[in-house]
Design goal:
Layout (H helix, E strand, L loop, with lengths): L1 E2 L10 H13 L7 H8 L1 E2 L3 H7 L2 H27 L4 E5 L6 H5 L5 E6 L1 H10 L6 E5 L17 E5 L8 H14 L4 E6 L2 H14 L15 H4 L5 E8 L13 H12 L4 E7 L1
The structure holds S-adenosylmethionine (SAM).
The site of S-adenosylmethionine has 21 residues, from helix 1.
Organism: Butyrivibrio fibrisolvens DSM 3071
Keywords: Methyltransferase, Transferase
GO biological process, one term: methylation
Length: 275
């Protein structure tokens, strides 16, 4: 069993992992993630409280969100690999997410980056396989970039990660990445400031984060377009409907939540393509 420390940013990796497990149980026709179930069963973590919260209608919507965003980001990775089959597939703030393996075409290279204590747990539960590396870095320490072999292209993705970053830090990160990884793309999930505030009330508080105003949020993709001349394009799609539209598959309440998230919280998947 592997212990996860409470009240840390690292603990936040439990939410999407557990969400994917719950989603598999409740919506097996939409998502099936036996790996998330296996990993949860190997963690020394008290899931009882989170379990209770996630069984509510709102909690189940959260589970749908995390499963859906993994689907969306995996879609983007697979799409990039069609034109760059040997590319680097880089999971920024990977937690215990195994998207690389879900997208592996047999020739690409996978890199999973997270804080050292997370990587220690990951090395036990999801040890790197062929063409895969688990890298222990703070993403704000740009030395991680030197570890990536981008000679055949690079697709970066971050799932549930930049909510913990200051806007300035994300901007600097993308500017540096655009210079270093020409022709690459970075894809991530985002919401607007209203969404960020809602999040602090729930899980960011548990991670000891309270000053949400400085944190990264996006109302409109044009905010990111203005960041750098090294961006070729910035695209945005609805998180819940933009890749696989599950609107007609869910309950009336969840339909309302989808509309709310699209219109008022601006839950989007954003893709930045570097020149
Ligand atoms: C909500 S979890 C998401 C985990 C994973 N992407 C998923 O979807 O299951 C956020 C992750 O980002 C990592 N993280 C946050 N800030 C980071 C930083 N500055 N450098 C590296 N990892 C970071 C945390 O350790 C945590 O594993």
């Amino acid at each position: 069993m592997y212990h996860i420390e409470k009240n840390t940013v690292q603990e936040t990796l439990i939410i999407p992992l557990f969400g994917r497990k719950v989603c598999s149980e409740h919506f097996p026709h939409l998502f099936k993630d036996p790996e998330a179930e296996r990993i949860c069963s190997m963690l020394d973590y008290d899931f009882a409280e989170k379990g209770k919260k996630m069984e509510s209608a709102v909690g189940l919507f959260g589970a749908l969100e995390v499963a859906q965003r993994q689907y969306d980001l995996a879609w983007e990775v697979k799409d990039y690999l069609k034109s760059h089959p040997n590319a680097a597939v880089v999971n920024l703030g990977c937690g215990l997410d195994d998207t690389f393996r879900k997208c592996d075409n047999g020739t690409c290279k996978g890199y999973n980056i997270d804080m050292p204590d997370v990587i220690t747990v990951r090395n036990e539960l999801l040890p790197a396989v062929d063409r895969e590396k688990n890298l222990a870095y703070d993403l704000n320490d740009e030395r991680w970039m030197d570890e990536i072999d981008s000679s055949h292209g690079a697709v970066f993705f971050a799932s549930g990660v930049f909510y913990y970053f200051k806007t300035e830090a994300v901007r600097e990160l993308f500017q540096k990445m655009a210079k270093k990884f020409s022709g690459g793309v970075v894809v991530f999930d985002s919401c607007n400031q209203r969404g960020a505030k809602m999040m602090t009330k729930t899980w960011l508080k548990e991670a000891g984060i309270s000053d949400v105003n400085a944190l990264f949020s996006v109302e409109d993709k044009s905010e990111i377009e203005a960041w750098s001349n090294d961006f070729a394009a910035v695209n945005a799609r609805s998180y819940m409907r933009g890749y696989r539209d599950i609107y007609n598959e869910v309950s009336f309440f969840h339909k309302l939540m989808i509309k709310f998230c699209d219109r008022l919280v601006k839950m989007q998947i954003i893709k930045v393509t570097f020149k």
